[in-house]
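Why do we bother with holo predictions? Because pocket geometry can differ from the apo form. Keep that in mind while you read this record for DOR.
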Amino acid sequence: MPHTLIIPAPVDPHVHLRGLDWAHKGTFTSETGAALAGGYAAVLDMPNTPPATVTPEALNLKMKAMAQESVSDWGVYYGAGLFADAAVYAYIADDICGIKMYCNATTGDLLIEDSALREAHFAAWKRAGNVKPIAVHAEGETVAQILALTRKYDIHTHFCHISTAEEIGYLQQAKADGLPVSIGVTPHHLYLTEDDVPRLGAFGLMKPALKTRHDQQALWAAVSSGLVDVIESDHAPHTLEEKGSERIYYGVPGLETTIPLLCLALHEKRITEQQLVKLVATNPRRIFHIAHDVNTYTAIDLAATYEIQNKNLFTACGWSPFSGMQVRGKITGVWIRGTQVFNGEKIRVPAGFGRNIWHQPL
Ligand code: DOR
Ligand code: ZN
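The structure, written out:
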């Protein structure tokens, strides 16, 4: 017997869609197709993929390409670069979902280690008068350093892919102190640990890296207690050839496995149905101020059990670190503004259907 769960407008607020100079890894069409197949109505795209989204020109180029090629709805982050300019921030604010600041090592060259420059970005975003968040890639003690800026500038700070017990500790205290922070955790840090790396090889390498069982337990406890706001895929596909090469390409795809893994967590009684809806839909829409159209929703058959198989994936990379895993929850349909965009098997809209969610309610 199917048991249908309806989720209003799921949003993955952390993806690296590729396209443009990295179209060999995946296109906006293929990866937003993976978003729909994974049950998401919209995705928020990170700025590191080349050409990096750190100038208004690069932002326009990306928005134009996404408008022409996307099948799901979308938003774009602007990357904190070598200059912090409030006038530029004010100029682009209506087009973007927020700022992304890389404070620890990542793919691409957007790293900002200088604490004065980090602060200059907080100050500029504040001066530009924005309510949208600054999302940060901060690990370990860097989390504490960024929290000092959150406190000083009173800007909503979203902490991406939190992966350790130490980081959870800093953020638990920050929330207790009433700071405007939110916490994202990825499914790979919940369902995999460093013990899986020998088995997975290059398919188990991403940033932040997989952590210990102790960290994994702290993450699950923080998800179950409601401390974690969002589960974000950090979808970052690289080709099979790249993953099989000498060089290390950090990143794993996740758009099609995140909601099924959370349905598994529901089945395992780690979270409730209400928490699942919050983690993938209500909370990301709240944090990023995304308007909601009641005709945008996803239907999932919670009773369905199946194995994740590479051959069934829509992502152009064609692999998953969860391949072979038994999960729950089959996406049976996705509707955006009343149009059925995915029917459980096929994408039903042409490239260009997806909209920038700041120009049209999702
Ligand atoms: O593993 C990662 N891959 N971490 C990042 O921060 C970026 C991403 C990518 O774009 O490949
Ligand atoms: Zn990322």
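Residues 14, 16, 46, 234, 236 surround zinc ion (ligand 2) (CB under 6 Å).
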